Amino acid sequence: MKSNKPLNHIPQEAFDWYDEYAHGGMSRRAFMDKLGTLAAVGYSMTFLTSVLMPNYVLAEQVSFNDEDILATYETFESPDGHGKGRGYLVKPTTEKTSYPVVLVIHENRGLNPYIKDVARRLAKAGFLAFAPDALHPSGGYPGNDDEGRTMQSALDRGKIQNDFVAAAHHLKSHPLSNGKLGAVGFCFGGYIVNYLAAIDSQLLSAGVPFYGTPAVKELRKNIKAPLMIQLGELDQRVNATWPEYEQDLKTNQVEYQMFMYKNANHGFHNDSTGRYDKENAELAWQRTLEFFNEKLQ
Length: 297
Hints:
The protein is an alpha/beta fold and 297 residues long. 37% of the residues lie in helices and 20% in strands. It has helices at residues 12-22, 28-36, 45-52, 113-124, 145-154, 157-172, 188-199, 236-239, 242-251, 278-296, and strands at residues 69-78, 83-92, 99-105, 128-132, 177-186, 206-210, 227-232, 256-261. The protein is globular, with a radius of gyration of 19 Å.
């Protein structure tokens, strides 16, 4: 049965339920039960799940076979984390001795195809990009987000954070690095960008957290790196943390920009789900590239 409801008429609460489910605040059964209540007003479950759940075929903007990039995997040492880490390294195929480098940090479900494509987009734009997989200690991203989310929640969060710190140092000191490190992350990855800026004031040269919560308050005084904060107007959960975070950035005289994208949900940059907002995502990405080009060259 097909729904006769257009995508932009899906009630906002469906996106809010998905956000709660995706971040561990609701079980899959409860999420599906709530979606079922929309059937009475003309939505089919097939339509709703196809809109809300990721379809990674949609997320490939740059093929791994693109002649302008070379994608491989690389491991790194993480003695304060899980011992060793692994990530997806993508470099431009131009003959240069060094590049500005960008760490790409996934959501709370491991290194899925969307995040790998983001790394390829950065390499296509001239950056050396590295996307670590927090799930490497458990065998790596399992091929679906539900299992990946469960796997990531079972790992020690402190060790995961230390793995990303180790990945940042690994990338910054890479033989092809120009020594200036940027970081971009989404959701949990947005939090990790904020955390990297706060845990070591010398680590980042620029950070772009997409809809990420801040590091704990006592660490924020360490932030020195310029930040570009990307937020969706409808993302009440993350946006509630912004006023206090902004005040701390002002107090500590951190260079920052915040962009609030009108009518955009949490996850609006992720082009594999119905939360994707093409116009806002493209604008946010253009701003991200311009920011990194300014701060990392």
